[in-house]
Amino acid sequence: MKEKTKNRSEKSVSKTAIARRDFIKTAAGASVFMIVPRHVLGGPAYVAPSDKINIAAVGVNGKGKTDIREVAHENIYALCDIDDRKMAATLEEDWTAGFRDKAKKYRDYREMLDNEPEIDAVLISTPDHMHSPIATHAMALGKHVYVQKPLTHTVAEARLLALRARENNVVTQMGNQGHAEEGARLINEWVADGLLGTVTEVHCWTNRPVWPQGIARPEGSDPVPAAMDWDLWLGAAPNRPYLQGRYHAFNWRGWRDFGTGVVGDMGAHIIDHPYWALDLDLPSTISASSTRWGRDFESFPLASKIHFEFPARGGRGPVKMTWYDGGLLPERPEMIENGRQMGDNDGGVLIVGDRNTLMHGVYGRDPRLIPEARNLEYQKPAPTMARSPGIYQEWIDAIKDRSKVTTSSFEYAARLTETMLLGNIALLRGGEHTVLEYDGANMRFTNDEVANAYLEKDYRPGFGLV
Fold first, then answer.
1. If you write DSSP's letter for every residue of 163-181 in order, what string do you get?
2. Beta-carbon-side half-sphere exposure of residue 392 (alpha carbons within 13 Å)
3. pLDDT at 50
4. Other C-beta atoms within 10 Å of 44: how many?
5. pTM to 2 decimals?
């Protein structure tokens, strides 16, 4: 991180620590009964199991709306969005009636976090480029954090978020909901059962992008609506003029300043399952090819193919994984029946072993052996993994009971995200026909200094990492 901004949250942490010390001294010498705010008891963001969690949300429309709805049985304490119209649209829906009037409303996440010490936990559902500035700010204040996928915008940010979660002892989760579904556990259990034999290759594909990519930056500008704070939307990203519908509220995914392209969007739903079941960790080499990028590498290409090689690990041998997007597909396996679709309409995965091949859809859904006759004769093992109450409830349960865990915590999600983002760096270097050699222990490419420059980025003043 080239600018590690030390902003208002740093002061807030020191003030909180001083306030707690002063309280202990005062209470020790006092004989009066006192009602103590719960954030003072038990350390930062302590929540008794019987209490409802005070949740703040940054980004309240689109995926943010889904996130809030999934945790609305807790206490929605504060809401933050740079667009008043989006805020109002969400709060018009019937299910928000219990909190629409009492929840605090903010445009600037920094003001919300610094001025609302009663917040226990934060949902972050913004464009990718703002995940890390908001998450590090929240964790520095002792808040538990849920961040939509992909976890971060850069590799260096992924490393930092995992570190900050450990340092601040907070409960974290990345929002790749398929990780908590039944299919994810079946894939793990079948692989562990030895069903596939020695796995040597994995193929992952998606039908996306479904937004513009491979285009030049649009010219001109439009007046910024009065209901929106465009500077706050840009946040850590370089200045760009506001253009109606070009970036906000959806098409940002295709632009490097704001998004992480297709592998960033869908890798956490697709790569996740073989990555978890095979314990892949970080790749040792990455290479890629693609259609043409947008001018000056500002907009991701329309279609790409990325190759990852993972070294042997534990009792498993090396594995080659190939990612396909933009309509590209792996070669159709000979054993799959004619007329049968590979994966589902949105994409899929083939995990190829020397005994059997497993196929599943996006989110790990509908795992099957191919051909279907082999799937029907397979005697499925008894469940060995604990089933999940859902990606959101895992997070809430672990906040209330620290003996419980989240399965897509930042410790895991950072490695998965780093792998995906290494693919984007290989795409940037694909025109040089480069096979990148990666030293994961030291977070650097050993054969390409240009590629190393893409591991981190600069931040606009005021929106750096805490």
1. HHHHHHT--EEEE-GGGGS
2. 15
3. 74
4. 21
5. 0.90
Buried b (16+ CB within 10 A) or exposed e, 308-339: bbbeeeeebeebbbbbbbbebebeeeeebeee
Rg (CA), the chain: 23
Are the C-beta atoms of 434 and 287 separated by less than 8 Å?
yes
How far the first Cα of the chain sits from its last, in Å, is: 10
**Ranges under pLDDT 50 in the chain:** 1-41
Helical packing angle, 63-70 and 84-91, nearest 10°: 40
Who's near 397: CB < 8 A, 6+ residues apart? 389, 404
Rounded Cα gap, residues 307 and 305, in angstroms: 7
Q: What is the pLDDT of residue 9?
A: 35
Q: H or E segment at 69?
A: helix 63-70
Backbone angles phi, psi at 82, to 5 degrees: -80, -5
Whole-angstrom CA distances from 40 to 21, 24, 37, 57, 402 are 10, 10, 6, 22, 17
Q: 218 preceded by cis ω (within 30°)?
A: no
Q: Which residues of 129-145 are buried (b: 16+ CB within 10 A; e: fewer)?
A: bbbbbbbbbbbbbbbbb
pLDDT in tens, 391-422: 999 999 999 999 999 999 999 999 999 999 99
What pLDDT score does 189 carry?
A: 98
Q: How far, in Å, CA of 16 to CA of 13, rounded?
A: 5
3-state helix, strand, coil in the chain (%, to 5): 35, 20, 45
Contact 437, 425 (CB under 8 A): no
Q: What percent of the chain has pLDDT over 70?
A: 90
Helix axes 131-140, 155-168, angle to 10 degrees: 20
The Cα-based distances of 93 to 61, 78, 84, 99, 128 in angstroms read 11, 17, 15, 11, 26
| Non-local CB neighbours of 448 within 8 Å, separated by 6+ positions | 429, 434, 436, 437
- Please report the domains of the chain, with CATH numbers, ordered by start residue: 8-177 (3.40.50.720), 180-385+409-455 (3.30.360.10)
Burial code (b: 16+ CB inside 10 Å, e: under 16) for 167-197 equals ebebbbbbbbbbbbbebbbbbbbbbeeebbe
- Beta-bridged to residue 122, according to DSSP, are 56, 145
147: which 2 tokens? 């961040």
In the prediction, which pLDDT does 43 show?
A: 54
